[in-house]
Amino acid sequence: MTVALVTGGSRGIGAATAVALAADGWDVGIGYRTRGDEADRVVEAVKQQGRRAIAVAADLTVQEDIERLFNTVTTGLGPLSAVINNAGVVSPAGRVDEYDAERLDNVFRINAISAFLVAGAAVRRMSTKHGHHGGVIVNVSSRAAVLGSAGEYVDYAASKAAVDALTIGLANEVAKEGVRVLGVRPGLIETEIHEPGRLDRLGTTPPLGRPGKPEEVAELIAFLASSRSSYMTGTTVDVSGGR
Ligand SMILES: NC(=O)c1ccc[n+]([C@@H]2O[C@H](COP(=O)([O-])OP(=O)(O)OC[C@H]3O[C@@H](n4cnc5c(N)ncnc54)[C@H](OP(=O)(O)O)[C@@H]3O)[C@@H](O)[C@H]2O)c1
């Protein structure tokens, strides 16, 4: 059996990834924070592909919730072979000289600290060092990590740069333990993460002339999670329409 866990799987890129993984033959555990109805719809979409799925409410800013999420998915579906470290948030648009500590705590807490904790929990459940059979971690970063997001959310960009460093460093730590660690850097993708009007304003700016669809990121994540990417680790791939 192949079992994958997708954090932030109720909506957007995570929801599309759960469905793409199911089409590839994975059973899928779906983590979400509050939007249970949407998570249930993703569970149904996975089941329509003939695979098993469960949805688990867990706030990834709470370490105990991360452990409970992993334990519930492995108890319900079986040992994990892939973890998609996808949940994330942006802050309201603003300049660095306007940020306060509360804002920074929030964005770094979910995008960087929780991403580290999820990756660590994944290693404990997949690494041969911990008695398991190996697997793949896919970290969802952002092109913002490279572009910097001036005037919008440099803090978000920096939190995603931390994710890119996590991908490189952790990949080297666990390469000989059967675990590959990869990343994706989406550009502008049509999801609810954007403030109203942002996609209308920026959507045609990528060289390909349009925003991306969550399914176009999900295809890449499903490829990276599979054995089709067997000689890849420690690298992050852009999926950004050239942006
Ligand atoms: N969309 C883009 O243009 C874009 C570009 C680059 C990178 N990304 C990255 O791609 C990832 C997914 O983004 P998206 O656009 O699909 O976002 P989205 O549509 O806003 O969905 C965010 C997901 O994360 C979950 N989540 C948020 N905070 C959480 C928490 N504290 N604990 C547990 N789950 C939490 C949400 O759960 P609920 O539904 O329960 O709230 C939801 O499932 C993020 O890491 C984002 O930074 C997105």
Explain what the structure shows.
This protein is an alpha/beta fold and 243 residues long. The protein has a single domain, classed as Rossmann fold. The chain contains 8 helices and 7 strands. Strands 3-2-1-4-5-6-7 form a 7-stranded parallel β-sheet, sandwiched between helices. Helix 1 runs parallel beside helix 2, helix 3 runs parallel beside helix 4 and helix 4 packs parallel to helix 6. The termini are far apart. The chain binds NADP nicotinamide-adenine-dinucleotide phosphate (NAP). Belongs to the short-chain dehydrogenases/reductases (SDR) family. InterPro entries: NAD(P)-bd_dom_sf, SDR_fam. GO terms for molecular function: oxidoreductase activity. Keywords: Oxidoreductase. This is SDR family oxidoreductase.
